[in-house]
Amino acid sequence: MTGELSPIDKAKFVAAKRSVDYVEDGMRVGLGTGSTAAWMVRCLGEMVRNDGLRIKGVPTSTRTAELARDVGIEVISLDEAKWLDVTIDGADEFDGNLNLIKGGGGALLQEKIVATASDQMIVIADVGKEVESLGSFPLPVEVIPFGWQTTKSLVEELLISMDVLGRDATLRMNGERPFITDEGNYIIDLHLGRIGNPHQLSMAMNQMPGVVENGLFLDICDVVILGFGDGRVETRDINEGTVEEDRLDFVETDNLFTDMND
Fold first, then answer.
1. Tally of domains within the chain
2. Record-annotated residues binding substrate (predicted)?
3. pLDDT digits (tens, 9 = 90+) for 160-199
């Protein structure tokens, strides 16, 4: 099966496979959203089925919840869990300080709430997600539908005083209609090129009426696990200041690779 995977999918898989080493029996685990996180959920499901791993998963989107249930993970709400041992999620970008841009899949609000309610956040990514400065990936901003055009104008006005390269803002669409988040909100994508001061930008945007949350995940991530297409894995721990390298062998597992087309 793995022989059919592209190098980028192999990179996502090995990062996900290594990340589940952080999950122990009895843990409450935040389950991220996106293609890389889906590999992680599959790996955890395999451990539940084959190794008897007992965990409770708190998903960050309806599609992650569906996948988790499909692979046999017990799903509970964050209100039921109250606090999590670890959250494992992907990222659209990360920098040298392990600050992130997330929300390309539209689940940034739940992802940030779940990650913040965890003892540890682990990000899994392929090597292409590392950047010198955040901003190449469009920054998602979740806004309420009421008055969204006014909110968009206020965000664009704010960007004039921010240290960014570009100031284009676009409403995310789903075909001919606006994309709707799980909470019923819209997303405005900011095409900034480079964000010179992410903390300043995040704080200023979140003070704006109409803005629910933004996709800057700052000082939240503890560990980044980077996957490479040849099976190499690099683990960076920001708290310990360590970088570890390893290589994972691919194992042919029909169950794990079934329907992995997301």
1. 2
2. 33-36, 89-92, 102-105, 129
3. 999 999 999 999 999 999 999 999 999 999 999 999 999 9
Using a cut of 0.85, tell me whether the model's pTM lies above it: yes
Is 133 assigned a ligand-binding role in the annotation? no
User: DSSP state, 50?
Assistant: H
33 carries a ligand binding annotation = yes
The domain containing residue 109 runs over which residues? 7-130+219-247
The strand pair at 28-31 and 56-59 is best described as: parallel
Cα dihedral sign, 212-215-221-223: positive
Q: What is the CATH number of the domain that holds 143?
A: 3.30.70.260
* Structure tokens belonging to residue 223: 């560990």
DSSP 206: H
Within this chain, do residues 22 and 56 fall inside the same structural domain, yes or no?
A: yes
Looking at the structure, do residues 235 and 210 belong to the same domain, yes or no?
Answer: no
Q: How far apart are CA 42 and CA 49, in angstroms?
A: 11
